[in-house]
Structure formats: C-alpha cells, structure tokens
Specification:
Blueprint (H helix, E strand, L loop, with lengths): L8 E9 L1 H8 L5 E5 L5 E5 L12 E9 L5 E6 L1
Antiparallel strand pairs: 1-4, 2-3, 4-5
Length: 79
C-alpha cells in the first residue's frame, strides 16, 4: 500500500457573531458566513460548519480552517 501525502492549506480568521445573528443561519434564512482572513482574503463557508463553536454569547474568537489541494474544507478549529 502506498500512502500519498496530501497538501493542505490553512487559513486563519477571527469572527464575532452574536447568538441572535447566528439564529438567522440556524433557521436557514442565511446559509453561508463570509469572513475576512488574516491575509485579507474573503472566505465564504457554510454556516453549519460553525455550529459546534456556538456558545451562549455567540461565536467569537480566532479560528483556523484547513483545506485540501482542491480547496475543499477539511476542518475548522478554534485557536
């Protein structure tokens, strides 16, 4: 068996989204969240991917997302 190492890219971003604002995503009236990466790029990602980070005061903090060589989202983690 041959293992092929895949190249991954990571992008860091900050987000400050109140619980009320996230409810629009949760209810389905908005499906994507657009954030500004540290390097200035605008990143659009499905709101559902941020649900695990929702706390009583919303989603706040610095995050890093990992993409595969085709720019498909692999995971998001809080830094």
């Amino acid at each position: 068996m041959t293992w092929r190492k895949t190249k991954t890219n990571s992008i860091k971003f900050r987000i400050a989204l109140s619980t009320d604002a996230f409810l629009r995503y949760y209810r389905g009236s908005a499906r994507s969240v657009i954030v500004r990466a540290e390097d200035g790029r605008r990143i659009q990602l499905p709101a559902a991917n941020l649900r695990p980070f929702l706390l009583s005061d919303g989603i706040n903090g610095e995050f890093e997302l990992s993409l595969d060589e085709n720019n498909k989202l692999l995971n998001i983690r809080r830094l």
